Amino acid sequence: MSDYYKPNRKPDWNYGGNKWRLSRSKIDLFTECARCFYVDNKLGVARPPGFPFNLNSAVDALLKKEFDIHRVAKNAHPIMKQYGVDAVPFEHPSMNIWRENFKGITHRHEPTGFTVSGAVDDIWVNPKGELIVVDYKSTSKDEKIEVLDKDWHDGYKRQMEVYQWLLRQNGFKVADQGYFVYANAGRDKKAFDGVLEFDVTLVPHKGNAGWVEGTLLDIKRCLDDEKIPNPADDCDYCRYREATGRVLMTQHQKNAPPTPSKKRTRTSSDADTLFS
Ligand code: SF4
Prior knowledge:
37% of the residues lie in helices and 16% in strands. It is of the alpha/beta class. The chain is globular, with a radius of gyration of 23 Å. Iron/sulfur cluster binds at residues 33, 35-36, 231-232, 235, 237-238.
């Protein structure tokens, strides 16, 4: 068993426990599949974590350091000038908390009682005093990245919109326009030579956080319901898990030693009931 995955978490961390918070990644999980969200947050069994993206984390850390130089100097980073963005990195005493995973920007949402949180990569500020939410992304693609037009980019956009919503709930003026600082590692060199070269682009996104309030209410209804939500239409894992459960249960029954008692033993149709 992997040291990194503990399927059953302590009840404190589940919905109703004193440590439970609704992070922006949990909101995204709900949008992706209400059933997975419910099993994780209410029943306390999370999905196994993905493999850590260490190269992406390194790019994030270095971009933070780079923008922090301009935050201290109170001047624009060259990429802002290159793309005509009239702003400087935002300086605030809570900036490091807002950027820290498991802390982030928080807001107590009265209609649901949820503490909503999200850790932002960066915030800039324009001359009107409006905050600009910025997210760093890194990848390696052949094409130059200038727009986010793929279906799977919707999650990135929702992520930015949650941060915009959180900052507004904390009383800040926030511009709808946010930016992704996209670092794209090129593959067209003759050799690696221990160096990855990145093309860095600034990709705008005009956020609309109007969906957030309604989604929080939907999440509240989901968590307060005893009924388990349906699986997502386009995910095969529940069908795989249920089919696996059935064959394993049947196999266990075949292998179990016969019991002399008159007690009724489980049959494969019981397994069907258990896993349906
Ligand atoms: S359908 Fe997929 S995403 Fe949803 S609960 Fe099942 S395994 Fe999780």
